[in-house]
Design goal:
Layout (H helix, E strand, L loop, with lengths): L3 E6 L4 E8 L4 E8 L2 H14 L3 E5 L7 H9 L3 E4 L5 E3 L5 E3 L5
Parallel strand pairs: 1-4, 4-5
Antiparallel strand pairs: 1-2, 2-3, 6-7
């Protein structure tokens, strides 16, 4: 199992990435532009925490294309978790998003 998990909430102009360890402790939370230099800085910062990471995105095409390509081109393990059914509040608790389902 990965030592850290990096989930990215994909947006049109900005993404928000939260990195958690195996116990659920938040190690990083950052909003970044959907821009190659900023995304590369985020990638480097997460890998500096630990290289054993699984990345997750909530959108698998379109506005996530740059981020997905950067991760895959740098040999990162990536999973897709649909954002329609899951909502994570500011305290890190996951609940079903009934309005979106």
């Amino acid at each position: 199992m990965a030592r850290i998990w990096a989930g990215t909430d994909i947006g049109k102009t900005h993404h928000h990435c939260v990195v958690l360890d195996a116990e659920g402790k938040r190690l990083l939370s950052r909003r970044v532009l959907n821009d190659e230099p900023e995304l590369m800085t985020l990638l480097a910062d997460v890998l500096a925490i630990d290289e054993d990471v699984v990345w997750a995105v909530d959108v698998a095409d379109g506005m996530a294309a740059l981020w997905i390509n950067l991760l895959l081109n740098h040999g990162q393990q990536l999973v897709y978790i649909p954002g329609v059914g899951v909502h994570v509040n500011v305290h890190g608790r996951v609940r079903m998003n009934v309005q979106s389902s």
